[in-house]
Every structure is written in C-alpha cells, then in structure tokens.
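Page header: ASSEMBLY MODEL / two components / 238 residues total.
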Amino acid sequence: MSADPRDEIVQHLPALRAFALSLTRNGAVADDMVQDTLVKAWSKIASFEPGTNMRAWLFTILRNTYYSNRRKAGREVSDAEGIFTESLSEKPAHDGRLQLADFRRAFVKLTDEQREALILVGAQGFSYEEAAETCGVAVGTIKSRVNRARARLAELLQLDDHDKLEMTDQATMAVVSGSRLTAR
Amino acid sequence: MGHKRSKDNGSEVIDENLKRVYQDMLDEKVPDRFLDLIAQLKSLDDAPSEDTAK
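Prediction written out in full:
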C-alpha cells in the first residue's frame, strides 16, 4: 500500500473551514460546503497531483461549489453580515488598534471575489500565482481584486492613507507608461 | 488618536486585522462531524469492490 494523499486532507480542515467561512460568512453554510468538498475531494483524488499544493486544490473544489450554488440561487447571501460578525468571539483590541468587530463589518461588505482574493493572499499566504490558479483567473485579476479589496476596506474603515491604496495595477501602469522616464 | 501615521498605515492595519480574523477562524475546533465523515469515507474504500480497474 503506497501513501494515500487523502490522508493529508484532515490537516487542511481548519484552513478549509476558515476559507469557507470567509466566503459564505455563515457558519452553517460554510460547514455544509466543507462537507461537500470533502466528499468531492475523496472521489476526485485521482485529479490531485501528488507533490502539488493540496490546500489550494481543496480550496478550488470548495470555491467552485460555492460559486455554483450561488449561480443556482441567483444571488449572494444577503443577510450574512450579522451572522458572520456575531458567530466569532470578540477579543479586545490591544494598544488602540482597530476593533476586530469593525474590521469584520467592513470585510463582509466586500464582494465575494474580493474577500476570496484578500484571504488567499493576505491571510493564507498564497502567492498571487497560487491564488490565481485556485480561482481560475489571471494573476493580474487577483492583484487587482486584492488592491480593490484593500482600497475598499481603507475607505470603509476610514483609514487615511495616501492615494497609494487606490492604485490598481492598471492605474499604476497607466501612470508609468504615460510619463516615460528618460534615462540619462 | 494617533499622531504618527506611516505611509503604509492603511495596508498594515488591514493586513494585521485580516490575519487576526483569519487566525481566529483557524483556531476554532474542527467539529467531529468532519472527522467522522472522513472515517466513513475511508471505511467505504476499505470495503472490497469488484471494479478495481487497473
């Protein structure tokens, strides 16, 4: 008997649940999705290439399930905000940092695609390439979603920053190509 | 109210909070139903089946 890659799945359960919760903002829906993902992953294990990122593979199955359900429902879950923000225990902010509750309230206002990109890159530590592959989009799309998500959060949380956060890659490119620097 | 405000204040605050929120979710105990499900899936595999196609 050679090692079964499925034995590794259990290690990814906490991350899978965290990702599902970020996406659905609803504990019960998130857990149903994790369950579906486990069953699918189990039967589709042949499509997993050993040695590659299993977490990304599982996330891909989970998000595909989510977006396919969303398409069927024809809408995003609308009343999720309260559920997500209340389902997690609150911890006091230290040294005057932003209250986590405020952050969560702002976070749930992002679009699904923005939350997903931000969680993968900003919290889960995926490279832009890994996140792009997980989401089945171009690297530039992920970068742009992350930038927009950050800009939107900064706006909602009234974090005064320079225009830096507003700059999408495209905007940056436009500025750069519009004012070509001449080498001396 | 903070007086000093670094240039990257916005991104730093966002990333820091994002990680805290995510860590809170990671720290949640995985419900037994998932471990039970995995055990169940495993036991189905172990059951002898005819169609071991190559």
